[in-house]
Amino acid sequence: MSSTDFNSGPFNDTINDMAPEPAAARRIVVLISGSGSNLQALIDAQRHDRLCGEIVAVISNEPDAYGLKRALEADIEAVALPHREYDSRDAYDGALIKVIDRHEPDLIVLAGFMRILTPRFVQRFLGKMLNIHPSLLPAYQGLNTHARALADGVKQHGCSVHFVTEELDGGPVVLQAELNVSSDDTVDTLKEKVHAREHLIYPIAVQWFLQGRLKYSTESATMDGHPLPPHGMRLSHTDAAEELDEEIDENPQTPSF
């Protein structure tokens, strides 16, 4: 993904038309549970000056998560906070709140954080917490999205960046990337293709928030003061494939926006 140029292509021709002056660096905390591939996409974006912010800490509920190693290699504070050491979900989230508050973040990014958050936690950081989900929400909330999409025989799949609310995968959607499902796709091939799209759009959505363009509303996310549609902004299969240097099929596509 490091070869992807977020500053070129038809998608960014649109967003750069309204790009504001760079804002002062803001503080980001990333929550992970595993490999941290989306964390790496954010680290790469920061390294190439594509984020007007700084990842100040990475926190994992799994002490052996590979993402912690990614953080250390990037000279970012890595914190292991094992959930199994706490008697309840509420107790764990209370401890997590304290660790996060210590870093005074402007934004909390969930990057494969495999925990259902308590209402207390969500309300504490409401409006400043983003997540990425491997489906075109509101379709396939929850787990096993690729298998469920294949079982239903859908023609399009993808991923969504959304604000985190108390409803699981139900917060206002910010940005989506589409993927045409082919007849020979499997769970593994869909996972790989969707991951590539996650790594493409997550840094863009994070940058929008850091710039002050993207904001939370109880009814919908807003971009430059304008409410976004229920699916947020949407990057078509063709545009995503061009950004990722994928082979583009000849199936008809829906508009990008």
Automatic annotation (TrEMBL):
Its EC number is 2.1.2.2. N(1)-(5-phospho-beta-D-ribosyl)glycinamide binds at residues 36-38. NCBIfam families: PurN (TIGR00639). Gene3D superfamilies: Formyl transferase, N-terminal domain. Residues 27-205 form the Formyl transferase N-terminal domain. The active site is at residue 133. The keyword Transferase applies. The gene is purN. It catalyses: N(1)-(5-phospho-beta-D-ribosyl)glycinamide + (6R)-10-formyltetrahydrofolate = N(2)-formyl-N(1)-(5-phospho-beta-D-ribosyl)glycinamide + (6S)-5,6,7,8-tetrahydrofolate + H(+). InterPro entries: Formyl_transf_N (IPR002376), Formyl_transf_N_sf (IPR036477), GART (IPR004607), GART_AS (IPR001555). GO terms for molecular function: phosphoribosylglycinamide formyltransferase activity. (6R)-10-formyltetrahydrofolate binds at residues 89, 114-117, 131. This is Phosphoribosylglycinamide formyltransferase. It is an enzyme of class 2 (transferase). Belongs to the GART family. SUPFAM superfamilies: Formyltransferase.
